[in-house]
UniProtKB/TrEMBL annotation:
Protein known as: GTP 3',8-cyclase
Pathway assignment: Cofactor biosynthesis; molybdopterin biosynthesis
Gene: moaA
Record function comment: Catalyzes the cyclization of GTP to (8S)-3',8-cyclo-7,8-dihydroguanosine 5'-triphosphate.
Subunit (UniProt): Monomer and homodimer.
Lineage start: Bacteria, Bacillati, Actinomycetota, Actinomycetes, Propionibacteriales
Similarity comment text for this entry: Belongs to the radical SAM superfamily. MoaA family.
Recorded superkingdom: Bacteria
GO molecular function: 4 iron, 4 sulfur cluster binding; cyclic pyranopterin monophosphate synthase activity; GTP 3',8'-cyclase activity; GTP binding; metal ion binding; S-adenosyl-L-methionine binding
Organism of origin: Aeromicrobium choanae
Catalytic activity line of the entry: GTP + AH2 + S-adenosyl-L-methionine = (8S)-3',8-cyclo-7,8-dihydroguanosine 5'-triphosphate + 5'-deoxyadenosine + L-methionine + A + H(+)
Length: 325
């Protein structure tokens, strides 16, 4: 049995949010204060996470990405990696990098296959403004530790923002190349807790490429598969850059993702308005078949696309940090 939706999309990529908590407060993701945290008792235990992952692997999932919030804020993150990797799928993680100096090596040994680290600016003051924490040095140390631990190819994520870091796009790419990493720019999406996203203010994928072409010769790399990023070689390679244009060039038609929130709700899309709660089954003595029924039901109900560009689009109630990016 596989997870197939009404449009024939087979779901093989599971995203699990380990926590909604975070060590940063990026303006496009979380408010400065007053975050409505998920209650501690509602956060899935490691056993519950492992059980959901096992059921999904049996349903054809081949890769699991751990995210959040900040996944490395969770105390047993290394143990979670070890237990999920033992189930067989490729396990990867998206992190703000703050704890990697200490954890990159243990994560590698636990079976983590790939790491994406988020870094939107190389300027310390700008970093402090954007994330509301003065921690750029920790991210840089984390990137170095990831490289030393053997996480290659390393990917670095940057949300490109007009009037914030648009003057740094070339510098970020050069920094990534120097680290043997691939920079991937992300269009800002309407997932901030303050609901302040403005499409007109968003830097588009085309604008990102235009800025990069002032410095690099870009040649498209064919064959993106179900990856959200379009990629280009830089000056003939081997360095490359990616652009995730989720708003202006959505990749919904090839989407193979399913998400589990830190409190055990299945979401069939980042922008879904509905979620299906697995907790009554997990904590009420339900069977694996009950979990399969809920998870496949959620996928069966998946819409064709997220519809950000539609006039009827409504931003989800949960911010990115509580859904799992
Ligand atoms: N805390 C980790 C991190 O920052 O990498 C993992 C979770 S974070 C929600 C995952 C990714 O989503 C990050 O690369 C972040 O920059 C991106 N992100 C967060 N809010 C976003 C938004 N409104 N639009 C586009 N990307 C966003
Ligand atoms: Fe935290 Fe990641 Fe959101 Fe920034 S983007 S506030 S690091 S969860």
């Amino acid at each position: 049995m596989t997870l197939v939706d009404g449009f024939g999309r087979v779901h093989r990529d599971l995203r699990i949010s380990l926590t909604d908590k975070c060590s940063l407060r990026c303006t496009y993701c979380m408010p400065a204060e007053g975050v409505p945290w998920i209650e501690r008792d509602s956060i899935l235990t490691t056993d519950e996470l492992e059980r959901i992952a096992r059921v999904c692997v049996d349903l054809g999932v081949t890769s699991i990405r751990l995210t959040g919030g900040e996944p490395l804020v969770r105390k047993d993150a290394v143990e979670v990696v070890r237990r999920l990797a033992a189930l067989g799928p490729e396990v990867s993680m998206t992190t703000n990098g703050l704890r990697l100096a200490e954890l990159a090596q243990p994560l590698r040994e636990a079976g983590l296959a790939r790491l994406n680290i988020s870094i939107d600016t190389l300027d310390r003051e700008r970093f402090a403004q954007l994330t509301r924490r003065d921690r750029l040095d920790d991210v840089l140390a984390g990137i170095e530790a990831a490289r030393v631990a053997g996480f290659t190819p390393l990917k670095l994520n940057a949300v490109a923002m007009r009037g914030v870091n648009e003057d740094e796009l070339v510098d970020l790419v050069e920094f990534a190349v120097g680290q043997g990493a691939q920079l991937r720019f992300i269009e800002q999406m309407p997932l901030d807790a303050g609901h302040t996203w403005d499409r007109a203010a968003m830097l588009t994928g085309d604008e990102i490429l235009e800025r990069l072409r002032t410095r690099f010769r870009l040649e498209p790399i064919p064959g993106r598969g179900s990856s959200p990023a379009d990629t280009w070689t830089l000056d003939g390679g081997p360095g490359s850059v990616g652009v995730i244009a989720s708003v202006t060039a959505p990749f919904c038609a090839a989407c193979d993702r399913i998400r589990i929130t830190a409190d055990g709700h299945v979401r069939n899309c980042l922008f879904a308005r509905d979620e299906s709660d697995l907790v009554p089954v997990l904590r009420g003595g339900g069977s694996d078949e009950d979990l399969v029924r809920i998870i496949s039901g959620s996928i069966a109900a998946k819409r064709a696309g997220h519809g950000i560009d539609s006039p009827t689009f409504v931003q989800p109630d949960r911010p990115m940090s509580a859904i799992g990016g």
